[in-house]
Specification:
alpha+beta; 2 domains; 5-stranded antiparallel beta sheet; 3-stranded antiparallel beta sheet; 34% strand
Amino acid sequence: MFNAMHTAATGMFAQERQIDTISNNLANVNTTAFKRTSMEFQDLIYQRLQEAGATLYRGVETPVQLEVGHGTAVVASNRLFSQGDLVETRNPLDVVIEGDGFLQVRMPDGDLAYTRDGSLKLSADGTLVTSSGFRVAPDIVVPEDAASIAISADGVVQAFLNDEELPVDLGELVLARFINPNGLAAVGRNLFRRTAASGEPLLATPGTQGVGTLRQGFVEASNVEVVSEMVNMIMAQRAYEISSKAIQTSDEMLQLANNLR
């Protein structure tokens, strides 16, 4: 009976994590390039009461085993990197990645972070930065007298100066991809950091070596599907209620056993 209480409690803990994850997904439904997360569950250890094939009576062997499970646990959070919808902004500094890949971002400590958020801005000195002010790597500086900026599908950034007919090359945006993007560590601000599980970044020109191309004037919307998240929330709520009911039922059965004369 005490096992039933513990087993049901593990189910409640697991559904709490599920609700936490769903809440975060829904909170970021309007976050640019946000990638939804799903939880993965596994069953826990089993108490083996009888082995399959055990001899019980006059050489008769049992065809099946007798075992009791001890609940569930959350073992992983799986981030889904499916492409979000393309949203046209007509902002020349906005750029979306169509396909695989991440933009590189230089953090204040000198390390590189990675993002799919292409809502780029200009700093006071004309450097291309993210919305949080982190510099895009490699550095691209736009001249003060630039009339307009063009970003090609293969990452070439050009500026049209006021007194010039031909554009001036400012640099190239390079994309990074990972063998295991789920191994990346989310650090907030739409940024990810490399880990041992993600592997080393593979750098490539957009449109080559398996990375996507760029499109100027667009950003990537969140890939969260509100209807799916609401359905998952209802399922998690019902599972939580049922687990709590199992604990209540176990407690009532223990009371009956304790009141036996």
